[in-house]
Amino acid sequence: MIFSLTLMLLSILRSSFLLVKLLSTFANTYIRYSDRVDIPIITMNLPSIFAKLEILKTVANHTSSYRIQNFNDFSSLLILIDEIEEFSRISRANQFRQYVNEFCSSSIFFSDNCLTINFIFDNPNIPDLNPELAFKGKANRFLDLFDISEFQEDLSINFIVTDKINTLGRNYELIIAKNNFEILIDNEKKEPSTYLKTYEIV
Questions:
Q1: Which residues contact 181 (CB under 8 A, 6 or more apart)?
Q2: What is the three-state SS of 84-122?
Q3: In angstroms, rounded to a whole number, what is the distance separating the alpha carbons of residues 68 and 187?
Q4: Which helix (H) or strand (E) holds 15?
Q5: Ramachandran region of residue 175, left (φ > 0), alpha (ψ -120 to 50) or beta?
Q6: All residues at 6 or more sequence positions from 73 whose CB lies less than 8 Å from its CB, including other chains
Q7: Could you tell me if 173 and 117 are in contact, meaning their C-beta atoms sit under 8 angstroms apart?
């Protein structure tokens, strides 16, 4: 039991550990004292130390089960940005390990306390793309990622996948707010537990 917990902790902290081991700017962070009552802070570069500790904490949270409740810390921003970038990044290999120009284009903006993330599948030259399948996968991921029951009261997330490569050309939409989320296809509500085959509010 202790061994398995240790392995889990190491996997969570692995990226931060590598930064400390491999980058001198982290490895040479000066925090040394012998008396907790009289810490010689005058000899320490506190802004640098705090900044590095914040980076390490953010990286560790990124590889853990951290859940987003608002966007008032670096961890939330890094995790969300990585999720967005991972989905639509340029030159990402497809399932056959061939590189493509891009899976989709994107439109991301913040208005009226709502963060809108719109991925537009408009490149018909990429084979085997399934916008609806991509939407379902990312919707499930977002519902794991956001702590809906503790989400900030005046914030909402609107995640949209726009299909411009198929004849029907549908819009798939996930709306997340505190204690609530909705799935819509062309503005028609769908039962999340049926459509995504997984979800209840947690």
A1: 143, 148, 174, 175, 192, 199, 201
A2: HHHHHCCCCECCCCCECCCCCEEEEEEECCEEEEEEEEC
A3: 26
A4: helix 2-22
A5: beta
A6: 58
A7: no
Write the single-letter amino acid at 78: L
**C-alpha dihedral sign at 89, 52, 109, 192:** positive
> Ramachandran region of residue 128, left (φ > 0), alpha (ψ -120 to 50) or beta?
left
pLDDT band, residue 120 (cuts 50/70/90):
very high
pLDDT tens per residue, range 135-181: 998 999 899 889 999 999 999 999 999 999 887 889 999 999 999 99
Give me the count of residues in the chain: 202
